[in-house]
Predict the 3D structure of the following.
Amino acid sequence: MVIKEILKFKPDSSCSKIQAYPSCSYELISRMNDKAFLLKDENLKLIAKTQAKVICEFFGIAFVEQVNNQLNKDVDVLVGAKIIDSPDYWKNEKEYKTEYVQALIHKIAKYIRKHRENR
């Protein structure tokens, strides 16, 4: 489900740049599955991120998303060691599939065993 289907920004007539946040209303589209959608933390984070983007856009401020720089650096190290070959998945995914995590663990263990033997 795309967040734009769930959350719509609707500035009302009293919405101004000085009082943008308190006087602008957000409307959740009524659907049967809204409750289930809103009970998931990742969906609440997505809504909050969308609201932040809308507020930044309204004020003419660039939205800058925080990035886990250490994760990106660590993924790059694993790519360099040829342990992983899909850095975008590991850098961008919010929830990892169990089988991929297990495969990663096996590759790291294999890498460690190989380098212990070469000592």
Summary: Residues 3-59 form one domain. The helical segments are 3-6, 20-23, 34-38, 41-59, 69-80, 87-92, 98-117. Strands lie at 7-10, 25-28. The longest strand covers residues 7-10.
